[in-house]
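Continuing from the previous page of notes. For each protein in this section, the sequence appears first, followed by its structure tokens. Read the first protein now.
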Amino acid sequence: MEKARQWNVPMLLVKDTVEAAIHAASVGFIHPDAIAGIQTDKRSDEKAPTDLEQLVEE
């Protein structure tokens, strides 16, 4: 973060991808409509793996 600050590059510490997406939309980096999909992806990523997914990972 210090290197970024030295080069006047803004840096934001966020708790998750949804918070990052909200910020990105607020400054015009992404379209606000993208936030809903990011929220859905986050919920999906947080679900426990299915039995099949566990088998494939082994």
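Done with the first. The second protein uses the same format. Note its length before scrolling.
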Amino acid sequence: MLCDMLSRTQIAGQPASYFRRQDISKWAEKFGLNASSGVVDEEYLEAVHEAGSSANGIFGARIMWDSMAEVADYLLDHFPSPNGEVAYVYLSRKDVISQAISLAKALQTGLWHVRADGSIQRSGPEQKATFDAALIDSCLLEIQEDASAWQKWFHKENIEPLEIVYEELVEDPKNIVGKVLTCLGQDPNLAASVEPGTSKMATNDNEEWRLRYLQYRKR
């Protein structure tokens, strides 16, 4: 939701998961490059820079922790002396159990995004999600470890990111987008005209799964 709305402002870059290793071939194909190699080279980085930038020159990318080391290597190899300022926006969720459930369902179904018009974006063929406490355990551990790794990295690099809470984003997305625009030195009032392009994905069975998982944890 956040990346989509920032893109819609047309002044905050076009942030997307350009460096997620599972998606590199897809992006390369979209850019008209050799999609079979899945290699991030200078040509790929140039295409990413063009695709991820808005007309004012601001570039945006969404980076997950499991891609962070590779992203750093890519950028250091090709841009050893980066120009310009870098703003970090860190998105976290208070209810990590619900986050783990959503991740577990996405891994099972291949459904990662629901657009505002109800259309869906899948990473594979349609599959049904089934409650799997062990998978939720694994997702929860991954989320917690990634959050800890990000905080350690921010501390090590002396970086103070703009911290965004998912629950607040869902409650008042325009206000959150305005905060990000302010962080980028842009007019926050422009967020008022931007509507979310994706919908909250949680369904009625998410709460059922949450209760079942809490019972499982009590055993």
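What the second structure shows: Residues 133-156 form the longest helix (24 residues). Residues 2-16+52-218 form a domain with the Rossmann fold fold (CATH 3.40.50.300). We return to this in next week's lecture.
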